[in-house]
Each structure stands twice: as structure tokens, then as C-alpha cells.
Amino acid sequence: MGQRRGADPLHWMLVLKNPSKDRGTWYHVIGERGVYEVAIQNGECFRSHEISEHYFICDFSERDQSELKSACLRAKLARSQEWTTAVLGDLENRGRVPPGTHSYWFGQIELSRWSTDGVHRLKRPTLSRSTPQQDIGNIRLQSSSISQPRYRGSAS
Prior knowledge:
By secondary structure, this protein is of the alpha+beta class. Helix content is 19%, strand content 16%.
């Protein structure tokens, strides 16, 4: 997982590397705000300062690298957490990662206003006119790019 930037969700990627080497291939999506592309980067450091955490998924042989690449290219482009989970789901359906891998990581996806999966979208709260002002004091949005939420209705 990448380093957190402000309140944005962590950037996820898959890394294929030989256990005896300190470099590998990064498989991830790059972009933002709904415009993404697949990035496959060979020879990248496994212990990079850009990566905050590592989680072992399974052993994968080098000869199966093309299968991983194909799954990456088949997955619908989306923000990194949703895309990575989709790739893992594809690989799980093909018997390449352990059963339950997709559902576990799907449950770890952070809310985002850029989510496209229909489950992890951060929604702006809607308040009725009769909602007292003090009831909205603890609402916090998970995006650092929004400085002040705007609400429909009266703020009286």
C-alpha cells in the first residue's frame, strides 16, 4: 500500500517479485478523479519509501506473470483499491489466489467520493429543514480537497 496523502484513501498495488530479490514489478492504476490507466512498472524497489505496508497474498511463479498482467488489463479501470480488488477477484475465480482473497480485500476498501463500485462511495449527507444545527457538528468528509461541505436546506 502506498503512503497516505492527507485524508485520501491509500493507493493499492500488486507487486510480483522473486523472494530473493529486492526489486519486482508493480501492477497498479494511476490517475485520479475518474481518469485512470494501468501501469506495469518493471524493476521497482520492493522496499520503497512510497510504500507504507506490504501484505503477502500468495506465491506466483514468474512464468505465470502473463496471467497476472492479463487480469490487470481485463479489470475495469477504477480507483486503485477497487481496481486491485477486481484483479484479485479475477485471479481468485481462476484459482490463482486463495479462496476468500477478494472478499477480504473488498472489505478493506476505504470510502471515497470517487468510488465507482456502488458500495464504497462517500456520500454527502442530506439534511432536512427541521434538522437542528447542532446535529451536523460531527460530520467529517474523508477528502482533503473539500474544505467546507454545503448542505441543501436552511442552516438556521
